Amino acid sequence: MATLQDVEKPRLDNDAADRLITSDNPEHPANLIPSLCAKFWTLGWVTGTGGGCSIRDEDLVYIAPSGVQKELMKNTDIYVLSLSAQEPTLKQRSYLRSPPCYKPSQCTPLFLAAFTRRNAGCCIHTHSQWAVLVTLLLEAQGPGSDKVFEINNIEQIKGFGRGTTKQGNLGYHDTLRIPVIENTPHEEDLTEYLEEAMDRYPDTYAVLVRRHGVYVWGDNVHKAKTMCER
């Protein structure tokens, strides 16, 4: 669903705008996003039109649209915006390219938070049932122990970085901590809570959303994808 914060009128003429998403390179963001979303669909991480992905290439941000079945997405469905062209609060967003028949993703302000606050190169949002289950298990433990997921002595955490100010990845005996925020009726309303979690846990690369899913980001597509797969 689009919001009043999204200005869908493109700043470029149609030909120039379409050149932003036209490339034979499979690693181009406009080609990678549909490819990744199709993969996530096969894994059951995204179903219907839920979930999404965004990639930052220097100043340009490529964003999956709202309302598209993830396994059917094409490069022509992708939104593009310039980070430097946005007003400081990022609440009034303008797009260099807007597909004619879709709406901007409600995940957009959360993706932008990862790019501006963490200098991430990619942010992925899934509705993974495993992520949802973790938040339910924490909820069952009661108040005080339901705000952060912690795990150690397990091989899979070795795929996570130690933090934005630290070198290398976590070790087997280290503890991975992922904050949990409460869900909201509208996706974009999660933004301030995601940002608060980022501030409170400066070394985290992910935030769980209770009864909803997870946001994962990384320096680039490879790192975001591998941490999401963990």
Index terms:
single chain; 230 residues; alpha+beta; L-fuculose-1-phosphate Aldolase; 2 domains; 8-stranded mixed beta sheet; two-stranded parallel sheet; 6 helices; 27% helix; EC 4.2.1.109; Aldolase_II/adducin_N_sf; methylthioribulose 1-phosphate dehydratase activity; amino-acid biosynthesis; MethylthioRu-1-P_deHdtase_MtnB
Model description:
- The chain is α+β, with helices and mostly antiparallel strands and 230 residues long.
- It is 27% helix and 20% strand.
- It has an eight-stranded mixed β-sheet, sandwiched between helices. Strands 1-5 form a two-stranded parallel ribbon.
- Strand 2 and strand 3 form a beta hairpin.
- The longest helix is centred in the N-terminal third of the chain and has 14 residues.
- The radius of gyration is 17 Å and the shape is globular.
